[in-house]
Design brief:
By secondary structure, the protein is of the alpha/beta class. 25% of the residues lie in helices and 21% in strands. α2 packs across α4.
Length: 173
């Protein structure tokens, strides 16, 4: 796969680089313009890393974008994809010293550019019905009810301030 590399400077003080070399299937999925995208596979197929890198790319490209990363059970999400997030993404991006924020109680990571990744369990999915989201990522979509999936899709209404951030434009990460 192609190498994904980002150079980022935080508050003109710290510069870091982020490297990611996606597997062939991950690269195809990242490049998809589809409104609905499923990425699956067996153990070791890179599903969690795909979600993390897809969220990261959107957060770097779209300042202020609100992203929901969800699974039926929040604890399961924390044990899997959140651990991959912590291992893969430079923690200085959510360090308040550099303008970011990590709220452990409300389960979100905010980058200095305002982009925010919210982690949520879907047992109380109705609490998201007033949200404006730019991207929704599900880990284990088979656990999510069709009603929750359909209703949450209506929350994809975030705008960049310059007009609507609609698909497929927002998919061009």
């Amino acid at each position: 796969g192609r190498l994904f590399c980002v150079r980022c400077t935080l508050r003109s003080v710290v510069t870091f680089q982020h490297h990611y070399s996606p597997l062939e299937g991950q690269a195809r999925a990242h490049g998809s313009k589809a409104r609905h995208l499923l990425y699956g596979g067996g153990v070791g197929a890179g599903k969690s890393r795909f979600l993390v890198e897809h969220a990261f790319a959107a957060m770097m490209k779209w300042p202020g974008i609100p992203i929901l990363l969800a699974r039926q059970d929040l604890l399961d999400l924390q044990r899997t994809t959140e651990e991959t997030w912590k291992k893969s993404i430079d923690s200085r991006l959510w360090d308040k010293k550099y303008g970011g924020w990590h709220n452990t109680g409300d389960h979100y990571y905010r980058f200095p550019n305002g982009a925010t990744l919210y982690l949520s369990g879907m047992k109380d999915w109705e609490s998201w019905l007033s949200a404006e989201l730019g991207l929704i990522l599900f880990e284990e979509v088979s656990e999510i009810s069709q009603e929750a999936y359909r209703m949450l899709e209506t929350r994809l209404r975030w705008t960049t301030g310059k007009g609507s951030c609609e698909r497929p434009e927002c998919r061009e990460l």
